[in-house]
Design brief:
The complex is a heterodimer of chains A (about 80) and B (about 250). Chain A is an all-alpha fold. Chain A has helices at about 1-25, 25-45, 50-75. In chain B, helix 4 crosses helix 10 and helix 6 (about 105-130) packs antiparallel against helix 7 (about 140-155). The chains are: A mainly alpha (about 80), B mainly alpha (about 250).
């Protein structure tokens, strides 16, 4: 029951965070929200027992790709037009 | 137009949610993934064939070694492509940045980074070397190692990081990683096996065929780690400076 609740909570948060990362105009905020998405995915993988995948998600998804996205945003216009 | 796209996405989302109820439930022993003969073969034979406790690494680096080798090549080509596209762009790029970052390296930040970078690198090496016993492996270890160089670039500036790991050396190291991987594969080919059939390495090393596969997996993971480390840092260096390789973030 506890795990069911945990999964449901994370899945609901995932949807919210996914919509939010597209919703916000500021691309830096969008990148950070995307990192939260990756971290939630990482929790979900770890909870399902796929520890290798969770590890990759944490390092690549939440770690390096956020830095690379922010590095790219600094060479673009920071506010999205739509 | 925007409203039409929204409705289309909503429809596709509902369609996917509707299709998802046909999936087998999580952990179902009758699901196609669990009941396939390939899966049960790996579960039954990984320990006997390779003596590797972490089945995921055994499948990744041994049974499906060919796939992982070209995954590493894909990472290499991606890094090379980003570098050459940004480097070879129009020279008259005068577009100024919206934010000009002009700062002195902060005392607290640099000293903290000085303390934690060695820890990150040791942990990265542990993840790489321990990949066939516990979760981890070449990709994760390599990313953590590359992240330590990115951290140096973030807290001082890109010049400091490039002085430790020049961009030319990045691509040399990345290519070396693929050479290590393919070299282990070719070595087993020359010893009479198939490409990446590590068991034949036992003919020249004083180990049993099972332990040859065990140690060859470590060698292969080291190759992957080299490539991923170098490419992660090269990606950051290229993207943060728009290919100019100076005054980063």
């Amino acid at each position: 029951m506890g795990l069911e609740l945990f999964n449901t909570l994370i899945l609901c948060l995932l949807v919210v965070v996914a919509v939010l990362s597209l919703w916000v105009r500021d691309l830096v905020v969008s990148a950070v929200v995307f990192a939260i998405y990756s971290f939630l995915m990482c929790l979900l993988w770890a909870e399902m027992g796929a520890v290798d995948v969770a590890f990759t998600e944490a390092t690549v998804g939440a770690g390096v790709s956020t830095v690379v996205l922010i590095a790219t945003v600094f060479n673009l216009k920071r506010k999205a037009k739509d | 137009m925007k409203k039409a796209a929204f409705i289309l996405i909503l429809c596709i989302g509902l369609l996917l949610a509707w299709a998802a109820k046909d999936f087998p439930s999580w952990g179902d022993p009758q699901s196609p993934a669990s009941s396939s003969p390939v899966a049960s073969h790996f579960i039954a034979n990984t320990g006997v064939d390779t003596e590797v406790p972490n089945m995921v690494t055994a499948v990744l680096a041994d049974y499906r070694g060919f796939d992982t080798m070209f995954e590493t090549v894909v990472v290499f080509i991606a890094g090379l492509a980003v570098f050459s596209i940004l480097r070879g762009g129009p020279k008259n790029r005068t577009r100024d940045r919206e934010f000009v970052v002009d700062f002195e390296p902060d005392l607290i930040v640099t000293n903290t980074v000085r303390l934690i970078v060695p820890v990150i690198q040791i942990f990265a090496l542990y993840v790489l070397a321990h990949g066939h016993v516990s979760p981890g492996g070449g990709f994760q270890g390599g990313v953590a190692m590359g992240a330590s160089f990115i951290l140096i670039a973030l807290s001082w500036d890109l010049k400091t990081a490039l002085a430790r790991f020049p961009i030319e050396r990045c691509f040399t190291v990345a290519a070396l990683g693929i050479v290590i991987y393919a070299g282990i594969g070719l070595l087993s080919l020359f010893l009479g096996g198939e490409f990446l059939d590590y068991a034949h390495l036992a003919k020249i090393f004083p180990v049993s065929p099972e332990m040859a596969r065990y140690h060859a997996m470590l060698g292969v993971e080291i190759g992957v780690g080299f490539t991923v480390t170098a490419i992660m840092f090269a990606l950051y260096a290229s993207l943060s400076t728009d290919g100019r390789m100076r005054d980063g973030l």
